[in-house]
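Hi W.,

Here's what went into the run:
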Amino acid sequence: MKTKLLLLLFVVSISFGQQRTCGTDAYMEKMLSNPEMKQQYLDLQKQFESELERLTNAQQNRNGNATFSTNATIRIPVAIHYPSVVNSSSATVKNCLRLLAQKQIAILNADYNATNSDVSLYSGYSSLFPGTFVGSMDVSWEIATQNHPSSSGLIDGTLAVTFGTNFLSNADSDSEWAGYCNLVVRNISGGILGYSPLGGYPNAGMTVVIDNNAFGATMTGSPTSCSGYVPGAPYNLGRTLTHELGHFFNLNHTFQGCDGANCATSGDRVCDTPPADQPRYDCNDPENPPAPGPVPGGGVNPPLTTCGFTQLTMNYMDYVQDSCMYMFTVGQATRMKAWYNFISGQLQTNVLANNDFVNNNFSISPNPNKGIFSIQLTEVTDNYTVIIIDALGREIFNGEYNQTTDLAQNIQLDNALSGMYFVTILSKGAQITKKIIIQ
Ligand SMILES: [Zn+2]
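Here's what came out:
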């Protein structure tokens, strides 16, 4: 085992920027070298397997579509930490990194709900993978906005994004931030792009760590990137975090080996991911794979077919470049949902945006008015919709807006009659209506 670890560290030290390397295996190897922790880990995993079995049995919807569950969308509170950015940094620097965090969260929400624009690529290859369909976790990742830990100094209504905290000075967890899904963005030595516990526990304040050059993606608008935190190709589409959070929700790599005939207990323990024994690094076409051998930019291409199956290289839990991973399977989504059920009691629920938060950040002026007025939001945690209804319940206006660029809206209601109207703001997890009078 030790030899394997040393070899792994050696390989990653010469490969940064050339091929993906995830530190989760090394992290877990280190953690499980402690006999007590190993026993604890195995006991909890056994309990988890019961939950997984229950969920799998309950799941009826396995007819080949991406729908995973009829349960309500689950909401996961996220806190993001930039320990290397001093808290006295300028507002410009901090705002840029907050935007980058929001960009990354938007990517997560797309990837975990199979609404990413490239998921449709799978239809071109699905005939190679009978029984393997795109999965959706039906989850909402949300940066927390209130009831922050008192030590953080953050006030209600601001995002749970910290700068220069002591986070991770000596460990990969911080009890101050228990109850959150904590993301730490920093320069990881050894060239590893990211790592996570395999099955993370929010009540211990466990973290997922992402390298500062593999977090988020190029932003639309200005600025397009933040100094020192520029995502570097080919890991510049935010998928390192998609991969690492898969580990946090107890997914293993898809290339765990060909051992054993029982897919539920061997390999990655997910039956609809074909077993494979080596990671894939390149963005090749599974139907027309390049010959095994060196990959441009580094690494070696193993044979495409391993363990007697075509490798599901487009899966987020392989090692391919960001632009060619674009799907979880239904089985993986089930496993992550089961992990969520297993740990959901550990997640804080009072830190997410709710009606109070939106109400405090939402104003309309002037009011009364003559049909021309402004809506101002100081902060929302997701894109939002404005709906205006008249006194008879008829919708007379409906607009969708971007959370970062459209916080102020000038609205003009042509030919609106005098009377009372209701302006509703709909955003993730919140809905607030205010009355206006048109004179
Ligand atoms: Zn990994």
